[in-house]
């Protein structure tokens, strides 16, 4: 990656970390397992949803819900956007390949066109086309992006489990790239952005996109 581009990437990551750290702090006595709330929905500003649309490959992520992860490759998001009044409607197809099958969940939602809120999307998802939309609304924040090369997003949904009378959150961070792979130094900087939202860097795994 060209040195000037990498310098801009470092600056963007530092700015995102500063914004996150200015949010509500975690009490010193709090254990990460007790954090059931989603982080503040902070994101990039200004933000252009149209420029963000198109194909993105997941190059790093964390396993879902602390469950042993399924071996998979070629995670790809395809965003489509359409302006409707004071919001930008979003549809997204997710492609996930495993050794046994391919999965194609779908997402629909909207980016707000209100000042300072354009990079935060509210949405719902379903396992595949034709399935019912799953209950509850999640929030996705675009923390940093240059639109042409890289992006960091974090999706969060707060949940209640009736059987155990307990609360938790589903927190899904992604490092995205317009190509199946991202230069190693740039990837390392982008992973550091995620450490500012209670995500242990050791849990962030590189995604196998070989053959995509």
From TrEMBL:
Residues 1-30 form the signal peptide. Keywords: Signal. Coiled coil: none annotated. GO terms for biological process: lipid metabolic process; response to reactive oxygen species. It comes from the Eukaryota. Gene3D superfamilies: 2.40.128.20. One of its GO terms (cellular component) is cytoplasm. The keyword Signal applies. This is Apolipoprotein D. It comes from Gryllus longicercus. The lineage of its organism: Eukaryota, Metazoa, Ecdysozoa, Arthropoda, Hexapoda.
